[in-house]
């Protein structure tokens, strides 16, 4: 039962109501105050104060001040009028209840609306911010573009200028050339004839020499220096050969780092294949043709197994494996032989190898995998490694749940395990 | 417009004087021809230098740059690199060929360097198995070799006519290496810095004639990258045994631009106007570009 706070005091003006509520030592926080249009509640367990107000108030603008052991409410009336009392006098329980609920609902709705409004304003703010940044970036880009454009134009102008300069330069030189021509022909001709006897520099008449004289700086000084230079060209080198060794590379294509790994793998595989072929060739040259066929050997092995010649079967399978070590059935059958021969470790090895080769697990190789698991399981059990054996049997059951034999064997093993556990 | 019977792979003006302006070309058949463009019917010089396509050609001694005899070097798919003097017919003055019985590798690129006086010359050749070999023509010997793990598409010295300073080698897989050629260590060779510019092949590198520390690379993705090399504080230092070894500097990208979707296979700078360059691409266009603000670097 809450303790009602009844020692409130209030006064009013035309537009507002001032309510003071002493709190009897309890401390209030804003969360304890609940106010809606016509309902006010302060709940600080175990204290409780509620009032159904005489007339509706504007609860958004009303305030509550907490301090000095009391709460001071300033409630603004919706309609300016003098109230007869703070609360509705003739409120009966039902009405009170209804009002209360209404108040709560209204408060909730208000809260919802507020959050909605907040969300919308937030979105708008974001949009605005985004647009602003976009504008800034756009401006930046434009600025860069403008700079580039200006640069481009400047450079184009410079280029034009330079081109014209070159043209003018050439014109100038050709004028010079005509001048020099008249002055320098005679001595030039003599010099050139001399030189032609010495070296094989192609020299098409005197026209070229005129150009040479005009090139670079003007006048006769250049002629002499050019002539001297030509005379000083060394004779062609004495022919010689340098022998070269290359970094060895098997492939005719260019070397690329990204392909090195692939190439290594390929070479490795080639080497493997060659090794196998070579090793076979050396020992098996005296075998008959059919004995080099792994399938034929497998059949032979199967026949020997059926007849009980387990050692012979193992030999046949061994040979077949050397020729082709990727056939899971060979290992599977060899495992069976080893089981009969009580070579349990070898049986486990072979069944494991068979299982490896039988990946990916597909419906096609179901029966093979079941056999492999069963054989391995049997080997484990005979080695008294019952837990491992059980694992294999359960794997086999998973693949083929309908096999009664496997189920029974699995049961037996479970009992064995439980028996040993209880015993120890 | 001049048309010749065999397709032409590469050409250079490097070995002719500025007046003669003969174009030396290598074609798909292995022929080296030098043409006078004003009378192009018959070549001025012609030799069937190689058994297979001439992939790359370079010339030195002409254009008023450097000293010494004009020489042309050609590198071919038949694995040989041959140096020719236009004054000597039919036989090369130097031949770098694989040892007897050795299987040959494609030579993809050649470049002259170190031609700072009349005797010194050096030829650098890059091969498709990543080998770079430096041949000294004065001593007619192999001066240095290395392997950069990717086929070498283009090599260039920063200047042909000075004591060799820097060599840039570009390769497949978007990598290029800058070698500091001033200090050769007896076992480690030349110091280098390498950079991966992009995922595609870097087809060509060309140094700016006006500033030998700036170079441009053209790529298989149709892009051009402009780089600047910065020298380290000390270009050489002594190693644990007291021999000098070079120290490589660093390379920084100044600018790049994508012009085409096809590889830009060749590019060259204008020697006259700083920043003017031309490039040719597989999309059958030749583009003339200008790079600005090179003065400010």
TrEMBL record, chain A:
GO CC, one annotated term: nucleus
CS domain residues: 3-87
GO molecular function, one term: nuclear estrogen receptor binding
Biased composition (Basic and acidic residues): 181-197
Coiled coil: 88-154
Residues in TPR repeats: 370-403
Record carries keyword DNA repair: no
Location(s) in or outside the cell: Cell projection, Neuron projection; Dynein axonemal particle; Nucleus
A GO biological process held by the record: epithelial cilium movement involved in extracellular fluid movement
Domain of life: Eukaryota
InterPro entries, A to Z: CS_dom (IPR007052), CS_DYX1C1 (IPR037894), Dynein_assembly_factor_4 (IPR052004), HSP20-like_chaperone (IPR008978), TPR-like_helical_dom_sf (IPR011990), TPR_rpt (IPR019734)
The protein, known as: Dynein axonemal assembly factor 4
Lineage, top ranks: Eukaryota, Metazoa, Chordata, Craniata, Vertebrata
Gene3D superfamilies from the UniProt entry: 2.60.40.790, Tetratricopeptide repeat domain
TrEMBL record, chain B:
PROSITE patterns, sorted: WD_REPEATS_2 (PS50082)
Domain of life according to the entry: Eukaryota
SMART domains xref list: WD40
InterPro entries: WD40/YVTN_repeat-like_dom_sf, WD40_PAC1, WD40_repeat_dom_sf, WD40_rpt
Location(s), subcellular: Dynein axonemal particle
Database matches in Pfam families: WD40
Keyword Cell membrane: no
Entry's Gene Ontology cellular component terms: dynein axonemal particle
Coiled-coil ranges (or none): none
Keywords: Apoptosis, Cytoplasm, Repeat, WD repeat
SUPFAM superfamilies in alphabetical order: WD40 repeat-like
WD repeats: 72-94
Biological process terms in GO annotation: apoptotic process
Function noted in UniProt: Key assembly factor specifically required for the stability of axonemal dynein heavy chains in cytoplasm.
Name the UniProt record assigns to this protein: Dynein axonemal assembly factor 10
The species this protein was found in: Chloropsis cyanopogon
